[in-house]
Specification:
The structure is a homodimer. The first copy, chain A, has six helices and three strands. By secondary structure, the first copy, chain A, is an alpha+beta fold. The first copy, chain A, has a three-stranded antiparallel β-sheet with strand order 1-3-2. Chains A and B meet through α1, α2 and α5 of A and α1, α2 and α5 of B. Chain A binds a DNA duplex through α4.
Chain lengths: 115, 115
DNA sequence: TTATAATATAAGTATATGCTTATATACGCA
DNA sequence: TGCGTATATAAGCATATACTTATATTATAA
């Protein structure tokens, strides 16, 4: 990937959002595929409002995109964000969260959210 | 650089520390050379206690090393820290802070801290 | 049209954070 | 020894953060 220079202030804002275990995991999850709120709730074993509030922060900062599909709202990584290169690099260096999604799938908990 | 996998919890802790403009600048400064507290104070235009408190956080987490040299205490980047690869990547993607140090030097404010 | 499911928002609360001012500590030098 | 400089620490305070519980919103389905 080409080297991009990101303004320090903006970088700090993004890093602050990454500096939370819950949000970092959420980003690790949407790196691989779109997820809906109930999936985050299941994977992270946290309350739905708590997850929603973390998602709102990520969305307000523009780090994730949301897309309503019927009853569900799917979140995905916004690869167009100015600080995406930082996020990409960070996610490259932490354990893959994909397996948590496949575990969900095997438990039959992934399907409930498919459109 | 070889790819290293950093535990999520530890990564989050480091990212939290990076997620502050002051600390991110400090790390950007020590990336290039050792600095003492008075230099951070000068460059960042913040109070000495405030700078000291940020440095303590970075030191407690092991992200920077300190070395006393006479009256001064010099801080440097700890490249042996488990999360250093993340820090390295982040610093690669923000503007270089080196010029702030050369500006200090030109103003004759750098010498006062040399041992 | 009502009930249910998925999600968001609001309000409350405990703790964390980042400053401030005041003071302590450590070193060098006269 | 005593003073000045560099730095650390302590205490106080305002604001931010991350939960909680309760309620609102939106869409589907009976």
């Amino acid at each position: 990937m080409e080297k991009t220079i990101i303004e320090l202030e903006q970088a700090a804002q993004t890093l602050k959002l990454l500096g939370d275990k819950t949000r970092l995991t959420i980003l690790g999850l949407v790196k691989d595929s779109e997820c809906c709120v109930c999936e985050f709730v299941e994977v992270l074993q946290m309350s739905q409002p708590s997850i929603s509030q973390h998602l709102r922060k990520l969305r307000d900062a523009g780090l994730v995109k949301e897309q309503r599909r019927g009853q569900w709202i799917f979140y995905s990584l916004n690869r167009d964000h100015a600080t995406y290169p930082i996020i990409h690099q960070v996610l490259e260096q932490i354990p893959d969260q994909k397996e948590k999604l496949t575990a969900l799938e095997e438990a039959g908990l992934r399907i409930q959210c498919d459109s």
